[in-house]
Design goal:
The protein is an alpha/beta fold and about 260 residues long. The chain has helices at about 15-30, 50-55, 70-80, 100-105, 120-125, 125-130, 150-155, 175-185, 190-195, 205-215, 230-235, 250-264, and strands at about 10, 30-35, 40-45, 65, 95, 110-115, 135-145, 160-170, 200-205, 225-230, 245. The radius of gyration is 20 Å and the shape is elongated. The two termini are about 30 Å apart.
Length: about 260
């Protein structure tokens, strides 16, 4: 029996602990999928400033806590546990960047709002942040360097910020080896990356874009690129027309986008 030719080739660059649902859905729909994590999240030890902020959290709660990822939610809740703070009891408005992040919070009894557009722009446009007035306090749970656009927007409006840097992001060493394996297992003329059209790469952040260029070099702009957020879209579309902006990382939504690409 002759195997059915895949619709195309998709490179799933989500972190290892988040990649499987998307991989399975795309494979079921007829795509060939390889996983190449572009981000590895490394927990950080709380700084003295962070510990001071958390120690004052009950007495001086912020108006809103913004949580930018499931990892930020898990590590932030662990930090609260260190100070024996019950997150669900805090008189705080919670804002999660996506449903996965909200689910982590909901598991401990915290009801979090999720913006319709699950990006930095969506956070900025949410009622939780739009309702703020000058000098109100907002806390952000994030990784180092993450969601700078959100912070820039809030500071420009006179909002006071407390930022907890809970993890750092880096390119996994294993992914460098994996990419070299992909590129060396066959001659250029038959590599699945080049042979299966369309080929699509998911880029969920500015960091993943930078690491993708570092790995792929001149080949970075060959496939269709799915990018998250207006800022990254503005940057990458100056380099290639083979680009689609996405507004969510939900597997079903991404499947719809790549199937549309396959039809074009």
């Amino acid at each position: 029996m002759i195997a059915k030719k895949p619709i195309g080739y998709f490179l799933n660059t989500r972190p290892s602990d988040r990649a499987q649902p998307l991989t399975l859905l795309l494979e079921q729909a007829g795509w060939h999928v390889d996983e190449l994590p572009l981000l590895e999240l490394i927990p950080l030890v709380l700084s003295e400033q962070d510990r001071h902020i958390l120690a004052q959290l009950v007495a001086q709660p912020p108006r809103v806590i913004v949580v930018v990822s499931p990892t930020a939610a898990r590590l932030g809740l662990l930090a609260l546990d260190t100070f024996r703070i019950n997150a669900a009891s805090l008189p705080i408005r919670w804002l999660a960047v996506g449903h996965g992040t909200a689910q982590v919070l909901e598991a401990v009894g915290v009801s979090a709002e999720v913006p319709e557009l699950q990006t930095s722009e969506g956070l900025i446009a949410s009622s939780a942040l739009c309702d703020l007035v000058v000098n109100e306090l907002v806390m952000v749970w994030r990784g180092i360097g993450g969601r700078e656009l959100v912070q820039e927007s809030l500071l420009a409006r006179g909002v006071c910020l407390q930022v907890l840097n809970l993890y750092q992001r880096q390119l996994p060493a294993s992914s460098k080896t994996l990419w070299m394996d992909y590129c060396s297992t066959a001659s250029d003329s038959v590599k699945k990356y080049d042979k299966l059209k369309p080929n699509v790469v998911l880029l969920s952040s500015g960091e993943s874009w930078r690491y993708w260029r570092e790995l792929a070099g001149e080949r970075a702009l060959t496939p269709w690129l799915l990018v998250m957020g207006h800022r990254l879209m503005d940057e990458v579309e100056q380099l290639t027309p083979r680009i689609r902006q996405i507004t969510s990382l939900q597997p079903q939504y991404i499947l719809e986008v790549v199937m549309d690409i396959a039809k074009s």
